[in-house]
Amino acid sequence: MSYETARQIFENTLSAEKRVSTTINLGLLNMVDRAAIEEASEWVVCALAGGKRVWMTSDLHLGHANIIGYSDRPFHSLADMTSAHLRLLQKVPPDELLIFAGDMALGDYDHAVQLIRSLPGHKILVAGNHDLTRDGRCRLAREKDLFDSVVPFLFWEGGLGRLVLVTHYPAVVTTHDAGRSVINYHGHLHQHRIENTAWVKYINVGWDVAHGLICL
């Protein structure tokens, strides 16, 4: 998949997401940095080619007590949810890659940063709408050594000639955009799923669907 194709799909996806403020979506668009996106995407390609596991999840909403009720999560309290997330994520070996497809945390920002720093693995954040402030800034991207990379999307060529795209929002893809089939790893929908199309296979990696980590 060429960078230009991936970027065009990403831009179309932002334009189609009307439930999120224009300021937030513009902030995600302003995060586009070709060199950073290509470098982080190559890390994934190299890890997979080298036989290493690549882990993925999204929409953890660390520190967000209300998400327990909103998404019917099986926890009695915020502390219960946080402990469960940490037990899961700390199983990732320190030399393997862990991708978060957006919406890391809400609530106490400093505590969230502390929790993220405690996580093992080489970490990539594919930013989601809740990772940005109301004025469209990604504060997590400014934290030194918190993530190995913070990007708005990832892309690479998968098996059988399919294009692979990692985004927070489910990708909006037309035949004109891609020219061939796409696998889209995404979050944003929590416990809900989106139907596959003739061109896109959607894989919701959100915690509310997987209740665990997806392994590529």
Structural description of this entry:
The chain is of the alpha/beta class and 216 residues long. The protein has 8 helices and 9 strands. Helix content is 33%, strand content 17%. The strands form 2 sheets. A 5-stranded mixed beta sheet has the order 4-3-2-1-9, with helices on one face. It has a 4-stranded mixed beta sheet with strand order 5-6-7-8. Helix 1 packs antiparallel against helix 2. The chain is globular and about 45 Å long.
Relative strand content: 15-25%
| Strand order in the largest sheet | 4-3-2-1-9
Low-confidence segments: none
Q: How many beta-strand segments?
A: 9
Sum up the overall morphology in one term: globular
Radius of gyration from the alpha-carbon trace, in angstroms: 16 Å
Write a brief caption for the model.
This protein is α/β, with parallel strands linked by helices and 216 residues long. It has eight helices and nine strands.
List keywords for this structure.
216 residues; alpha/beta; five-stranded mixed beta sheet; four-stranded mixed beta sheet; 9 strands; 17% strand; globular
